[in-house]
Amino acid sequence: MTYDxxxxxxxxxxxxxxxxxxxxxxxxxxxxxxxxxxxGNARVTLNGGGAHFDRAAADLEGFARPLWGLAPLGAxxxxxxxxxxxxxxxxxxxxxxxxEYWGTVNGRDQRMVELAALGFALALVPEKSGNRSMRAPAxxxxxxxxxxxxxxxxxxxxxxxxxxxxxxxxxxxxxxTAA
Length: 179
What we know:
Number of helices: 5
Order of helices and strands: HHHHEHEE
Number of strands: 3
């Protein structure tokens, strides 16, 4: 029997011609990541054997990179059933007291790269960052679940040693995308 590598490709058979095809492709690429989410949803742990940065940054990469596709999907009113994972993960990953905290940004750090995807998602779909549509289910205990319409703003703060930390602040007005 001959192995056909196309059979393992989640995009096999998808013509990628219509909006529905693209949405289906995005979800097919995302679905295998569900098993890799941490308990607090702040980390997506993949094989980091090729990464040249620490585990927390590698797990942040796994968490943030799907947002490059998911944020436009959400902005286009596409269906995605897991926004609550990103809401909870964002809350936990930016909380220095949480075990899944993403850590301090130091100099030329991989976390800076991943902050671009987070910022893109927060700018494109702010309503998914903590409002009703991205809130964790009521059974979960999460800071996001009690924010009642607030948004999360990520900031980095530097110090004289050249390191920064990722922090979150709750703002009462949604983040504006107006120029």
